[in-house]
Amino acid sequence: MGQVVTQVDAFTDTRFSGNPAAVCVLSEALPDDWMQAVAREMNLSETAFVVRREGGFDLRWFTPVTEVSLCGHATLASAHVLWEDGHLGPDEQAWFHTKSGPLSARLLDGWIELDFPAEPPTHLSEPLPDLSDALGVTPRWIGRNRFDHLVEVESEEVVRASKPDFGRLRGLSDRGVILTSLASTAGYDFVSRFFAPRAGIDEDPVTGSAHCCLGPFWRDRLGQDRFVAYQASARGGVVNVRVAGARVKLSGQAVTVLRGEFVD
User: In terms of pTM, does the model score above 0.90?
Assistant: First the structure.
């Protein structure tokens, strides 16, 4: 029997929205080049590989071109599959061992809550004209954490209207760029978009790991620790964010779209 793959739309309760991820629950660890080939074949922003181990599961994430150190939506999708397929009982917490340390997920009132490290940005005092020009925006604030640049602009309309030059963004040394502003759409606190052409993803539909940066950033701006965030990509998705000290709790929903099997 070949390896089973499940495709899940994450940070949504509606198929064909949110962020799609592929999840492979493996009986044993397989070579890196096989996992990268599978991710390339699936051609989604992330493919997750899960292997049971003592104390939980090993979890790794691959884009079509590279392995990444932290991914929110594929973690949410992985937890969804573990509960849906009976690898865990509904009252059991999912514990993941990853390149970003221990992560966990639990079911909470119909949502999946992820426990991730906070990744606050540091302000960059020197202007980055190439970044501003590549995004086609006038920044109010630019910062950076260990993964990405963060660019704040004046309005949700500017976030939605940005048409980045992905060729120029690909030249950045970071994983990607987060573009954000306060929300003007009722029901949301802030909006964002995420661009990562260097990692093989021009625009990611909904990026959990970006909210590890956005949560602390907007906490400092607004003086609150709970947010309802909207990622304003073409597919769109909702992320509930709670900043808790050095951790960020990200809550979302997920729905299975398809299942398949790789032919041996």
Answer: yes
**Nearest Cα residue to 183 out of 206, 205, 223, 153:** 153
- Distance (Å, rounded) from C-alpha 197 to C-alpha 199? 5
Label residue 226 left, alpha or beta by phi (over 0 means left) and psi (-120 to 50 means alpha): beta
Measured CA to CA, the distance from residue 126 to residue 139 in angstroms comes to 12
Query: Catalytic site residues?
Result: 46
Question: Do residues 220 and 256 both lie within one domain?
Answer: no
Number of Cβ within 10 Å of residue 32's Cβ equals: 12
pLDDT at 1: 53
**In 3D, which of 165, 161, 163, 159 has the Cα closest to residue 178?**
159
Are residue 105 and residue 170 in the same domain, yes or no? no
Radius of gyration of the chain (CA): 18
Torsion of CA 80, 84, 89, 93, to 10 degrees: 0
- Residue 235 placed within a domain: yes
Residues 74 and 135 in one domain: no
Q: What is the mean pLDDT of each run of 10 residues along the chain (264 residues)?
A: 90 95 96 97 96 97 95 98 96 97 94 97 87 95 95 98 95 90 98 95 96 98 98 96 97 97 87
Structural domain boundaries, residue 47: 4-110+252-261
256 domain residue, yes or no: yes
Q: Report the pLDDT value the prediction gives residue 263, as an integer from 0 to 100.
A: 87
